[in-house]
Amino acid sequence: MSTPEAKLDALGIVLPAPMKPVATYVPFVITGNLLYVSGQVSATAEGRILGRLGDDMELSAGQHAARICGINLIAQCKSAVGELSRIKRVVKLGGFVNAAPHFVDIPQVVNGCSDLMVEVFGEAGKHARSAVACPTLPLGVAVEVDGVFEIG
């Protein structure tokens, strides 16, 4: 059986250093067997992925931005629990998309993150989810995703 780390390696994904909070909150909280990860934005070491879906950003670019959020979520998970095999289930993701009023493909954007969770965690990566549009997001990013994970 392949580990989540091995799956990341096979996908060519190197986890970045976990992002530091930009306000008064912590990056994650563990309570009982649940790990709550604060919203991770579409940002890499090279900078933030900015834009508004339906204005200056296409669906595929939004999906890429959501995938970056997923990579950042996984980086926070690894920071919180060490080995990613401790993640027993991706319980729920909450996706927020910076979108113009006429842009309605919000769920398809957040699939960029959801698909990554399944690629990395297999069946345990299938999760409940919210996907909502916002008129703006912190730091002007295109996408933000938070998550709840069951740990063992």
Please give a structural write-up.
The protein is an alpha+beta fold. The protein has a single domain (4-15, 34-151), classed as 60s Ribosomal Protein L30, Chain: A. Helix content is 30%, strand content 29%. The chain contains 3 helices and 7 strands, in the order αββββαβαββ. The protein has helices spanning 4-10, 59-81, 106-121; strands at residues 28-31, 34-41, 43-44, 47-48, 87-98, 128-134, 143-151. The strands form 2 sheets. The chain has a 5-stranded mixed beta sheet with strand order 1-2-7-5-6. It has a two-stranded antiparallel sheet with strand order 3-4. A hairpin with a 2-residue loop joins strand 1 (28-31) and strand 2. The mean pLDDT is 96.
Short descriptors:
3 helices, 152 residues, 7 strands, two-stranded antiparallel sheet, 29% strand, alpha+beta, 60s Ribosomal Protein L30, Chain: A, 30% helix, five-stranded mixed sheet
- Tally the beta strands: 7
Major sheet: order of its strands? 1-2-7-5-6
CATH class value: Alpha Beta
Detail the poorly predicted runs.
none
Give the domain tally.
1
Fraction of helical residues: 25-40%
Class of secondary structure makeup: alpha+beta
The radius of gyration is 14 Å
Number of helices: 3
Strand content: 25-35%
The SSE string, one letter per element, is HEEEEHEHEE
Strand count, sense and closure of the main sheet? 5 strands, mixed
Task: State the fourth-level CATH superfamily.
Answer: RutC-like
**Overall pLDDT metric:** 96
How would the global form be characterised?
Answer: globular
CATH architecture: 2-Layer Sandwich
Oligomer: single chain
End-to-end distance: 17 Å
Q: Which fold name fills CATH's third level, the topology?
A: 60s Ribosomal Protein L30, Chain: A
